[in-house]
Design goal:
Helix content: 25-40%
Structural class: mainly alpha
Strand content: 5-15%
Order of helices and strands: HEEHHHH
Radius of gyration: 16 Å
Strand order of the largest sheet: 1-2
Distance between the termini: 30 Å
């Protein structure tokens, strides 16, 4: 059974979603451990040699996919979101068929807002 129908594909996240998720649920890898991004000094210690010294620089690097994107992306820990407010209506059907599974394209932002 393919796993694709059970994944949500974030094709185009708005800047506001990335900002809120990073500031609220942001964790980074520091010495192979999950560390909360509470201060800019954590980002600076890990990525300062790539001229990424604060959270805003980290988000800018992720949004624009410029030279040190891979380092910034590997530093960030995946976001752990909660279940969507109001639940999922039909998780066994594809989004195109009126369900919730699969690629939402531009409508992913609404789902992410419900999951924050």
């Amino acid at each position: 059974m393919p796993i694709n129908p059970f994944l949500f594909h974030p094709v185009s996240q708005a800047l506001t979603n990335i900002l809120s998720n990073t500031f609220r649920r942001g964790y980074g890898k520091l010495n192979k451990q999950r560390t909360a991004l509470t201060h800019n000094s954590i980002v600076e210690n890990a990525l300062g040699k790539f001229a990424i010294i604060c959270m805003e620089d980290l988000i800018h690097e992720i949004m624009t996919v410029i030279p040190h994107f891979k380092k910034a992306n590997n530093f960030l820990w995946p976001f752990k979101l909660k279940a969507p407010l109001g639940g999922l209506k039909k998780k066994r059907k594809h989004y195109v068929e009126g369900g919730d599974a699969g690629d939402r394209e531009n409508y992913i932002n609404e789902l992410i807002r419900r999951m924050n």
